[in-house]
Every structure is written in structure tokens, then in C-alpha cells.
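Subject: for your reference before the review

Hello V.,

The reviewers asked for a structural picture of the protein, and I figured it would be easier to keep everything in one thread rather than splitting it across files. Below is the amino acid sequence we used in the manuscript, unchanged from the supplementary table.
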Amino acid sequence: MTLRERGRYDARVPSRSPQWEAPPRLALARCSSLVILAAGVAIASTAAALRASAQEANAADARLTIETTPGARLAFDGSPAPTPIEGAQSARPMSAGVHTIRIERRGYMARTEQILLERGESRTLFAPLAPKTRRGAIARATLVPGWGSHYMDRPAVGWGLAAAAVAGAAGAIAYDRQMAGRVDDYESRLAEYGQAVVPERQEETYRAAQEAFGKVDDSRSARNASIAILAGAYALSVAEALFRYPFSRERDDAPGADRGSLGPRLDDTSSACSFASGGARITLLRVSLRSAAR
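And here is what came back from the structure prediction:
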């Protein structure tokens, strides 16, 4: 057979595909991988089903009944969303073990209870909430500005008063230190003026001492303004707790509540400025009433 005829013969022979050329070991490895993957999925699904069934079984291990203040909200094991209860009693199945329960309601002191439940146990937890009082609000407002507002469930006003008090205290300290340094500079300028002999030097040192005294006076004014801000924050905090308690209709209906309100209530969105203007309107109303009585 010549080379030309051999070339034509090779051209007529079909070429083998890559799949046909693949060794049988590669196909076996692929099948093994698929089997392992399917086994892993089956094991994971079985474990999830067993875990769910175990949780369902443990959920009915114990039963807890909580008797507390009507309208309270319960948070179990650090849950960020408390669950409100209807009435004064809440019963639910619980898993065996240690549980942390937080009970809260607006106008009452929140409390946290930790309880251990045994398997098959049924327990009743008595956890009434203590109502907040005007005395507690005044005591907190006197210690820290804004604390009484937080106690009365008005965090917006509380943070505002606390920020004003911090700003006033920080400003008073800073300006007092600044004034001390400027007083030293003024005394040195005054000493230079007393030692000056030449009239031109006396005039120059006098102007420098006068300028230094002006800076001292500016620092003193700023310090006094900061002290006034701090005192105002304290005064508003105490006055709010003294004259604006109780603070909600929900709180008025509480058993043992202090109903000695001396003024209109403020909601959570009001501010210390509205409180001051309300007090001024009450004073003017009392004056007008006294004048009409005369």
C-alpha cells in the first residue's frame, strides 16, 4: 500500500471520542462522590428531624404558670420582644432547665426572675410588680438629672436633661481652668505695669493688662453660664418629678398608685421646654383666678 492510499484509509477511519477514551477509574470516582454527597444530605436531614422531635418532646417536659400584674409583658431567656399577657396569669409549656424571665410594664418597676424547672414539673411563679412612686422619681432626679425622667418612662426628656447637665458641668470645669490661667496672665501684666517708668511703657502695659482683664471676665461669664445650665438641668429634673407625677393614665389605675398630680401630664414626645412653658401657664392661671376671686 502506498503512502497516498494509506492516507486515504486513515481519513476514512472515524476518530474515537474523549468519553470513550476515559478510563473506568474516573467514572467510578464520580459515582463514589455522588454516593457520598447523597449520604451526607440524608444524614443531615435525619439529624434535623431528630433535633426537632427532641425539642418538641422537651417543650412539654414542664409547665410554668406566671401570676403577675395585669397587662405586664414577659420576655423569656433574653428575648428582645416581650410578649404581652391577657389578665394577670400566663401558663405555657416550658423545657426542663434554667430559664430567665423578665417581667415589665409601664409605670411599674421591672423585675427579673430565674427559675429551674425539672422534667414533668408544674410550677406557679408569683411575681407582682411594684408600682413606681413620686418619692422614687424625686430621689432619682435629685441624684442625677434626667434619672427621674427615665424612671417615669420618659427617656427622651431624661437623655436631654442628662446631656444638658453633662455639658454644663464640662463647660464649668473647662472655663474655670481657663479663667485661672488668664488670671495669672493678668497679674503678670499688672506687675509689669507697676514696674514701668517710661510713660510710653506705662501706656503699653496698661493696655495689655486691660486686655488680659477682659479675657478673665469673658471666662468668668462663660463659667457662670455653664453653672447656670447645670443648675437649670437639676431644677427641671426635680420639678418634673415633683409636679408632673403620675405620668400616664395607665399608671393612674394601678393599685396603690400615688395620684397626687399637681399638673397636666407630659407624654414621651414632649420636652423640657414644653414643661417650663406649661408651668408658666399654670402660674398665670392661678394669678388670674386669685384676681377674679378678689
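For the response letter, the relevant points are probably these. The two ends are 144 Å apart (CA to CA). The CA atoms of residues 175 and 222 lie 6 Å apart.

Happy to draft the paragraph if you're swamped.

O.
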